[in-house]
Amino acid sequence: MTTWDGAAAAERVAITSDQDVVRVRQLVRTLAVAVKLSLVDQTKIVTAASELARNTLVYGGGGNAEVSRVDNGRKPGIRIVFADEGPGIPDLDLALTDGYTTGGGMGLGLSGARRLVDEFEIDTEVGKGTTISVTKWCR
Amino acid sequence: MERVPVLKIGDILLVSIQIDMEDQVALQLQEDLADKIVSTGCHGVIIDISALDIVDSFVGRTLATIASVSKVLDADTVVVGMRPAVAITLVELGLSLPGIRTALNVELGMKLLAQERERYELDLEDEDEESAVPTP
Amino acid sequence: MALSSEQGNRFADLLKGHEDTVIASWTDEISRTVRGRLSRAELQRQTSELQKGFQTALSGGASDLNDDAAAELRAQLTELSNTRARQGFTANETAVSVFALKEAVFQVIKGGEDADTATLRDYIGFSAFVDRAALFTFDTYVRIREELIADQAEQLLELSTPVVKLWEGVVAVPLVGTLDSARAQVVMERLLQTLVDTGSPYAIIDITGVPAVDTQVAQHILKTVVAARLMGADCIISGIRPQIAQTIVALGIEFGDIATKASLADALRHVLRLTGTKRQER
């Protein structure tokens, strides 16, 4: 089992199948409990992680997620970085719009996940891949 | 692969999701339920999600599809036991689960299904009476 | 300049030898700052205890406040900060209670008229020791005040968000006071949890006691209603005063198909009618 004592503790999971999405969820939940996020915030970050991990799998053609504990000096938090080397996102604004989808989903993945976290950064280049970093802080 | 069991209680199929479902398991459940509705002739489905600590858009979509498919097969679906934290997260996510009926627990879910069925049968009776009245 | 153990011993002797004088002038100093909010007898008791604390620490060879010999003194200073913070004294008034010892001791040295260089050097070391003690008191005071504030904020949150059972299957949340984001979140979670715990399919949110409804507050209420619906419960909003109704319309907030009633009584009647018709259908 993973222990999260150091501030730099990070765990990397490869996302290549359905099971890996479940693995990311469980890892994020374990850390969310360890940094003492409230129950609702735990649920939000795990849900966001689930959405983004599935995006990495379905649209990015697989990749990896790095889950780490962070600290901004005043409060602890949890950060997850999803990276893939897929086709990238041509129109970012459009992709972040509610209801927009190319994968036959409900189109809430990106925009919905963004609403569930405190910080959301996305870096994408067509043909190179996409990196998304999300952070949730304790209150 | 794990499978979510589908139980038959009277005229109702009860599904209690107790595991962190992989997407494949959710899709399998969707198929199993459709088969079971046809083979048992049940008119109600209760899906208990009180053990789920998250519902993401994939699970949400699966639930919506189950409800729609069941409707086509003449069965009402009620999703019961959603946790408060899950509901708050779904609202924030923007997922309102349209077309899905919900109840706080299995008991209230069964009541809701019974009411639905009664209303449906009352409507049938009304129709029968109307057609029985001879036209002058 | 740290205090050596001989210097410490000399001051311990001095505190012992001039016990009454030091306590008297120390107490005078403090009573000037607290201006009658503590009785002289009370102050005298505190200063004489502190005096013994300093005496013990210094004769035990404490050159720094963190030394083992000063453990007892630290405990006393913590206790002092604790009572002062709870009695509502300022940080300044609390720290002065310790600083005043310097003045009192200086009076004693001056009174002896033997203030040579050696004595002054001793006094500077002693003064530094008292400074550290005062700063320690100050720190403790701040920490205790922060704890107090956090506790009170939490208590206030608890107090201001009751969820009451109104009828079989009906719970109500009477909201009183301004709703900020943090409080709205607490209300939301508590209401939803109560619905689960009591198995109540109806909730009435009464906003009679909410002075103003802005877009954000309305947003929070709407989210609660939608979340409750997702769980299989219906919410009714009651207690909308005329001017709030005006604001809601002016702000263009859509309450959609959410039931709104003028009073809590109307809302309850509405719910009972809903459950009643269902019963009649059976």
Automatic annotation (TrEMBL), chain A:
Gene3D superfamilies: Histidine kinase-like ATPase, C-terminal domain. SMART domains: HATPase_c. Pfam families: HATPase_c (PF02518). Residues 40-139 form the Histidine kinase/HSP90-like ATPase domain. InterPro entries: HATPase_C_sf (IPR036890), HATPase_dom (IPR003594). This is Anti-sigma regulatory factor. It comes from Winogradskya consettensis. The lineage of its organism: Bacteria, Bacillati, Actinomycetota, Actinomycetes, Micromonosporales. The gene is rsbT.
From TrEMBL, chain B:
Pfam families: STAS. Residues 2-113 form the STAS domain. Gene3D superfamilies: STAS domain. This is Anti-sigma factor antagonist. It comes from Winogradskya consettensis.
UniProtKB/TrEMBL annotation, chain C:
Residues 160-271 form the STAS domain. InterPro entries: Bact_StressResp_Reg (IPR051932), RsbRD_N_dom (IPR025751), STAS_dom (IPR002645), STAS_dom_sf (IPR036513). Keywords: Phosphoprotein. The keyword Phosphoprotein applies. CDD domains: STAS_RsbR_RsbS_like. It comes from the Bacteria. This is Polyvinylalcohol dehydrogenase. The lineage of its organism: Bacteria, Bacillati, Actinomycetota, Actinomycetes, Micromonosporales.
